[in-house]
Each structure stands twice: as C-alpha cells, then as structure tokens.
Amino acid sequence: MAKEPRKKTFVLAPRVRRAKLTVDYAGALNSEQLAAVQAPPGAVLVIAGAGTGKTRVITYRVAYLLETCARADEVLLLTFTNKAAREMMGRVESLTGTASHEFWGGTFHHIAHRLLRKHAERIGYKKGYTILDREDAQSLLRACISERKSSAGKSSAKRFPQAQVLSSIHSLAVNTQTHAAEVIASRYTHLADRTDEILQIFRAYEKRRRDANAMSYDDLLWNWLKLLEDEEFRSALRARFRHVLVDEYQDTNLLQGAIVDLMCRPDGCITVVGDDAQSIYAWRGATPENILTFPERYHDTKLFKLETNYRSTPEILEVANRAIVANPRKFEKNLHPSRDSGVAPEVVPCRDAFQQSRFVTERIIQMHEEGTSLEDIAVLYRSHWNALELQLEMQRRDVPFRVRGGIRFFEQAHIKDVTAFLRAVVNPRDEIAWLRLLPLIPHVGAATAQAVFGILDAIPSPLEELESADVLGAVSAKAKKPYRKVARLVKKLATPEMRAAPSEMIRRVMDGFYADYLVTRYPNARLRREDISQLGLYAAQSDSAEAFLSDLALSGVVEAETSPVGPDEDKFVTLSTVHQAKGLEWPVVFVIWLADGRFPTDFAGRVEGGYDEERRLFHVAVTRAKDELVLAYPMTYRWRGKAPVLMKRSRFLTELDEPSPPPYDIVVIEEPLPTDFELMERALGGTKPREIEVEVGGAPRALPATKRKRKKKAKGKTAKHKVGRKAAKKPEAKRRSAKKATKVRKKRRP
After folding, report:
1. What is the model's pTM?
2. Would you state the torsion angle of the CA atoms of residues 338, 342, 347, 351, taken in this order, to the nearest 10 degrees?
3. Which of 38, 28, 111 is nearest to 77 (CA)?
4. CA distances, 362 to each of 228, 385, 417, 669, 687 (Å)
5. Handedness of CA 539, 525, 81, 268 (dihedral sign)
6. What's the rounded mean pLDDT across residues 391-398?
7. What SS3 class is residue 321?
8. DSSP string, 219-286
9. Who wins on pLDDT, 443 or 136?
C-alpha cells in the first residue's frame, strides 16, 4: 500500500506593501510616538501617559498599517465612545484617503451589533432581533419583579429591590464574568438574604428576553463572546480582521478583555493603547489586569512608552509622577515636560470645609479679576457631595458654575426627598413636599398621594390628623402599615425639640425610613447616603428647620435654578468629580477634600486594591492641570453640631514628600476679626458666628483698587496675596459689596 505523503506547514510572512508612504510620520510625531506607530506587525502595547498624544498615536498607527501591510477591510478599531471612533476614523481618512466606511471601527457594543446582525442565528436567535436600551431592559425587569412579588404573596413583606438595582447587579455579573450570587455577596451585602429570589428573577428575565428575541446592551457583548467560542467562527473572524487595535485598553472589563483575546491569536497583530495609571473604573467592572498582564498573554510583545507630556508644566508633572509611585503593580514610566517651568503647585490646609469653600471661591474671584477666564478653571473632587459647601458659597458670591456629569447637589432626587420631610413639618400645607414624600411609601402612588394631601389640606391641624380615619380611608390596605410608620415619623419630627435640630431631623428620616428606601431604589445607595450625611453636616450650622430651609431657598438651590448670575453669564467654573473629568484639561485646577476618609474614601480600605485605585484617581486629577494646581483639604470635620473631629490629610499628599524637598508650596490662611457691624448683625439674628483664626498683630487689608499682575513666584519664597471676603447679608437678603479681605500667606514646606 502506497504511503501518504508527509504534510508540512509553511507560514506566510505578514503582507508588506512596498508603496511609497504618503504620510509624513517623522514630521508629525515625536520619536516615542514614531517608534510605536511604525512598530512591525505583531503584539504592540503602548503605555501612553496623560497628555502624551495617545489619540494621535492610534490614529497614525491605523494609517501606517493601511499604507504598509493591511487592506482597509482587515482592520478593526475598538473604542469606548462613538465620538472617539468617528474622530479617529475621520483623521485616518484625511491622512490616507481611505474612506472610513471601508474599515470597521466603533465601540465594543457597536461592533458586536454588526456581527450579531449577520450571525445571531448561530446562537439561537432569530433574524431581526431587538436591542433593548437601558430603560426597556429595566421595564422588562420590573415585569419580572411584579410577577415574583405576586407569586410570593405576603411571605415577601420586606421592600423588594427595584429594577434599577437589579439591573446593576445583573450588568456587573455579566461584565465581570462573575456569578450574580458572588456579586451580591461582595457588593450588595444588604440583599444577601434575598439572593435566591433575585436569581429566580434573573432567570425569568433572561427567558423573557429570549422569548422576545431581544438583547440588552450587556447581551450584545456576551453573545459576541459566545460566537467566538465556536472555533470555526473564531477562525473566520481572525482571518478577516488581521489587525485589531484597542483604545483606552486600561478601561476594559473582563468580558471585553476575553473578547479581544479571542479575536486575536497569541502571535497575532494587535495594538492596544492605554495607561495603567489611569485605570479608575473598577466600580463598573473595569480591571487594570487586562493591560498589566498583556505581555504574559501575547508572545513577543513590543512595549512602547509615551512619556513626553504636552499639557502640564514641569512642576505639575513632578507631583503627578510622585503621586503614583506607591502603587505596587504598574508599568514604570516618568512623565517629562515639553513646556517651560511655571508656578509651583500649592497645598492648602483649611480649618474646615466652610473655610475651604471660601478660600476656593475667593481665589477664583481673584484669578478672574487678574484675567483668567472662568471657563479655564475647574474644581475636582472625589464625590459630588464633597462640593456641597462650595456650591453654596459660589452661589452666594455670584460665581457662575456648572456641574459636569451631574446636577447641583440640592437638585438631586435623594436630597429633595429628605428635605421634603422637613418642608412638610415646617409648612404642613406645602403641596409639593407632600406629593414628593408620600409616593416614597410602598404601595402609595400619585393618585393616593393627591387624595391624602387633599384631606390634610382641609384639616385645621394636618400634622395631628395624619392617622385619622379619613386619611387612612384614602390609603389602600397594603399601604396602611408603611404609611403609619411614616406618619409617626413625621409627628416625631414636628416636636419643638426636633425642629430646633435640623441635622437630627435628617438623621431620624434616614434611620426611620429613608435608608431602607435608598438600598432598594438606587444601585449607588452608599454614595447617596454620604450625600445625605453631608447634608446633615450643613444643617448642623442652623438652629432650626425653618432657618435651614430658608438658607437653602435664599441660595437658590432647592428649586433647581438653572440660570446662574455673575460677572460673565456665558462662562462658568466647572465643578466635577475626577471620574467625569478624565480626558479633559484646564489651565487652573483645584482638587478639594484631600483628607483620609474622603480622598481616598473609607470604602477603599475595605476592598482589595482599593487604595491603588484611589491613588490612580488622584494621579488623574493632578494631570488635568495645565498651568496651576491647588490641592486643598479641611483639618476638621463637624457632624450633628458636635465638637470638631480632627481629619488627617490624605496619604496621597504625604506620599508626595519623598524625596525631599516636596514639590509644592504651602498656603496658610489667616482671617481678620469680624467688624463691629458684623458682630451686631449676628447678635440680631443674622449670620451665625464662625470660628476664626487671627494672626497676632495682623489687621484686615482692603481689596486693592487695581488688578494685581500675576507674577511667576520662585519656589521657596514667601508670597502674599489678598482676596475678597464674603460680605454679610442684609436682612432683605441683598448682597453687600465686599469690603474685607482674607489674607493668605504662602510658605515653602520645610
């Protein structure tokens, strides 16, 4: 019998075009960028520090591949936003002349949809499936919850989590490739006793989506992964997309990381661009492990580092480099400047949060008077509740601001919910307060709330008749028990002792009712609790509920004013969390509340890698600044009117001190004594006196009549500058022009 011929394998080298390059890469890129762009085909990892031209590199990398070794239909570009995809593809088209529609580019979800439109039948879907947006998906979950509650009957007396909460649990489980029970046990411990019920709802939810031939956003990625688990399909895709590029790779989650790995062979042509030092989205499932372990998963990875920063001054970059040193797992890099030297960053210890807000506001006013546009200034913080005092101070001083990625503190739903209890007590005929408060009660809808208020409004003493037969008659049988609980809570709040302590009223609302509502209504209940705690801190400055609510109303924040007044109504100071500020930059950046327990948060110490994530977040905050950086923190914290508690400055500030000398100046704030007029007004019931610090022998100095030129200050020298002091309000709530001055002394940290 004739023997079969032996089979041998011959691997073709990557296709290389010999055509003359039309793009001037050397003229458009620096040496670091050029090396990354012109790397030979294979596994390429680009660690791009903040402000180093990451987008430019990935754009020119696509252009270079198209000009040298790839057809347009062989390229796949994955991004995190549609805007980024459009911008990159548009730049490639302008560079190479290749039409953007000829190669695939878009977000993970967009590419998943394009693939599933053609191949969903492989995994059991029918043609023409529907995509559920987040609201549609939550509506389907609500139907599953209602069905479960109906079948459970009275055995499920405890308030059940709402669809928004369950949607977050389900999404986190899918994107981290973790069982939902583990997500509940680790992140939603307050729902641990309902795990079995939640899992049953998820099974019903998945069945309903399948029966409806529908996919949620999370399904798009999950089903893309399922397609790739088929070896034949995986091989076909790998042959089709010979070159895969991923932007912001540090922000990928485990599911996205698995998809990318299956799209490429270990020896395939893949380029990922990112910065492990800017991986800050663990709370939504992202993991720095994808980028940190990339060289282990891809053979012969070529590593390139972009370290030339085009954004910040050398002094700011020195702080940025030191900020990330303490993280144990990272790619070593050192950002170096392309700009000339500027002013030293400043660290500002403040007596408390109120002095911190006054300092920041007055410093902004001073900068604006010296010629800095308000839109060139940003104030960053860890969580939105950190900006409570600052928003009030800026509102009082007519400094226009906008809150990026959110709404003003007192406009948030949970803040308005809690203040509604106080408003109903102060004014029992406040229809808006009652119609906000009553629907929070289980089984009380808008119609019932309106009926209850109609009865209360017709009664001479509404608070005394909250449990009268007429009122209870308007409430359904299922709602009577929780309604009585809230009615008794409101009666307790209405006592004279309680009305004299608004911070205690807020605590009673939380402990007596609203805390349970938060955990079943919002997936970020912990952050909202912190907001309400901060509201209580602010309320402790008032000696009655009436004074507290009046202060809010006069500040124009409770009613959600949207037209701030100020010197330039078309320009605003930006207030933002650090997460919302990623990818942006400003000439002047303030970072506030840099105290342990606030930044980093207490929660960071209770999760693995929590402080590492917070340190990366601090690094991101610092690298938003182009010209000036101010780092502030309160030294004391007061809660519920008790004695001030000392706060420790953030460990991230302490870590900047080595090696010596520290890369910043220290600002010491001094306040003059109040005038006789202010003392008299306080005695008559005006602004409550605050603790003050007085320099011995010091005296108030007037705001200079002419604008002071800003001069570059040599490090280590003492500099003084004067900013306007907040004027006391007239009884008719009109502003007085600023006459006093707060004196700030800056000195070099020893």
Report:
1. 0.74
2. -140
3. 111
4. 58, 21, 32, 12, 19
5. positive
6. 89
7. helix
8. HHHHHHHHHHTSHHHHHHHHHH--EEEESSGGG-BHHHHHHHHHHS-TTSEEEEEE-GGG---GGGTB
9. 443
